[in-house]
């Protein structure tokens, strides 16, 4: 099993993630709360300690305004780059 993340940081991403990992708080929240996966399943699938999953969930709920800002920034970035992608319906044989 992986090394336990000791804290949530913002050193590698524009959003909070587990120290020493690329796994974001938002990703873990999505997996557990939006997709309904068990925290142990998320930990096993991503080589995390289950404590890291709970740590990320706690961070998400303790820092709701920060996480809302992160989510708005992510949505804006996706929208800003939408013109760089091709809709499959627009592709012709």
Structure overview:
InterPro entries: DUF433 (IPR007367), Homeodomain-like_sf (IPR009057), WH-like_DNA-bd_sf (IPR036388). It comes from Halosimplex carlsbadense 2-9-1. This is DUF433 domain-containing protein. It holds the Pfam family DUF433. Residues 67-93 are annotated as: Disordered. The structure is a single chain. This protein is mainly alpha-helical. It has one domain (8-83). The protein is 51% helix and 4% strand. The protein has four helices and two strands. The chain has helices spanning 25-34, 39-45, 50-62, 64-80, and strands at residues 8-9, 17-18. A hairpin with a 7-residue loop joins β1 (8-9) and β2. The longest helix has 17 residues, at 64-80. It starts with 7 loop residues before the first strand and ends in a 13-residue tail after the last helix. The mean pLDDT is 87.
What is the approximate shape? globular
Unreliable residue stretches = none
Strand order of the largest sheet: 1-2
How many discrete structural domains?
A: 1
- The tally of helices reads 4
Topology, number of strands: 2
Most strands sheet: 2 strands, antiparallel
Distance between the termini: 47 Å
């Amino acid at each position: 099993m992986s090394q336990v993340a000791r804290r949530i940081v913002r050193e590698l991403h524009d959003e909070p993630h587990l120290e020493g990992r690329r796994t974001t708080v938002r990703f873990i929240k999505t997996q557990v709360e939006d997709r309904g996966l068990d925290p142990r399943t998320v930990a096993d699938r991503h080589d995390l300690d289950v404590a890291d999953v709970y740590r990320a969930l706690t961070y998400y709920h303790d820092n709701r305004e920060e996480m809302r800002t992160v989510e708005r920034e992510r949505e804006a970035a996706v929208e800003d780059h939408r013109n760089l992608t091709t809709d499959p319906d627009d592709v012709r044989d």
